[in-house]
Amino acid sequence: MPRVLYDLCGIDENLRFSPYCWRVKYALAHKGLDYETRPWHFTDKPAIGFSEQGKVPVLVDGEQTVTDSYEIFRYLDRTYPDKPLLGSGEAEARARFLKFYAERSLAPGMMKTIVMDLYNALDPRDREYFRETREKAFGRALEEVHAPSRGLSQLDQALEPLRGRLGEADFVDGEAPAAADYLLFGSFMWARCVSTADLVSNADPVYAWMERMLDVHGGLGRNAMRIVDIEGAYAN
Amino acid sequence: MPRVLYDLCGIDENLRFSPYCWRVKYALAHKGLDYETRPWHFTDKPAIGFSEQGKVPVLVDGEQTVTDSYEIFRYLDRTYPDKPLLGSGEAEARARFLKFYAERSLAPGMMKTIVMDLYNALDPRDREYFRETREKAFGRALEEVHAPSRGLSQLDQALEPLRGRLGEADFVDGEAPAAADYLLFGSFMWARCVSTADLVSNADPVYAWMERMLDVHGGLGRNAMRIVDIEGAYAN
Lengths: 236, 236
Hints:
The structure is a homodimer.
Chain A: E1 4-8, H1 19-31, E2 36-40, E3 58-61, E4 64-67, H2 69-79, H3 90-121, H4 124-138, H5 142-145, H6 148-158, H7 160-166, H8 179-194, H9 205-219
Parallel strand pairs in A: 1-2
Antiparallel strand pairs in A: 1-3, 3-4
């Protein structure tokens, strides 16, 4: 039985933008593991009911079902110890910090910038679900969350430590990417797939890293479908 | 010959507030190494001329002279491999990110909040030097850098990933502190020694971590002199 990853899709089945699913696709590529993806919609809870929760990524690997991107990283390191993603001890502790940096420092500024693009990239059947759950979480309407210039300025400030690190190394994790790079880059793939917003100037060390990350593992990120590849789908 | 650390001092010889020197004092304590400190002033360049540069920390360990807090961490791990600070491979790469997070995310908000307290804590003979070099670096007068409410709000936002990590673990590096904790906590000691500003609310996981960090290694941080311990020195 092939390894299967349930992967969020949008208005086109091949438009895959979940930052958490992108983390896992990079992690699987890092380990050199084959897999198939199953396109999944926010509202298609029954399809992943076997995982006893309602979110992707869900990885089915033989008899094992694993959910949550970070838990999947841990599972992969445990099961396929070659080419560690997280590592152990202090390496793993510091990867946890990077995970929170992605989710709490980078994602909020990106969200303010791309939220309406994201909404438009959703399959129409998911839009009501997305609006309801996110408006509840944010405490306001999506249209009020949408504030690209504030979002970009927040992101610019949040990028400072990443900029510092990437000014001295090709990847956060050194000469080659590993968990820290994938944990962060998932958020950049999320924005890239649904939006044309220029989040980072091309003179920024973060931009050069993004280009390298798009190219690694056979162009995994670069080859991904973007909303602009779908005729008539990109509303501005 | 005893191990010697040249350590920045302020209006009192025992007021030691350099965030970079605090990193090193925690690192030496982590390794269980004895040392003496030599109080040093910004303008006392000749005293560290033997190090061929003009900043502290300067660690003199037998025949070795090492400068720059991060390089001192590396030196200590190389020379005294027991109880690693940085570790190697991904652990070390991620520690670099934490170093930049301290300097580029945390320090700027703190600086806006405490800069005039810092100025007042300096030995009078260092004030002109400090003002000139910092105003050149900031591109404006210290009094214009001083903006506590903006500084606190910037710091509050920058603390988000640290808050996330410390909501699940006692220390950034896990069950016990190591390099990541020391790299960050140096900045908190800097603020604590010169200012009474409440940087973090006592309901914050970061606050509980600060309390733990003050207590580790025999209360190294807790026992340090603060500006408020010097009669008449704290101007508000």
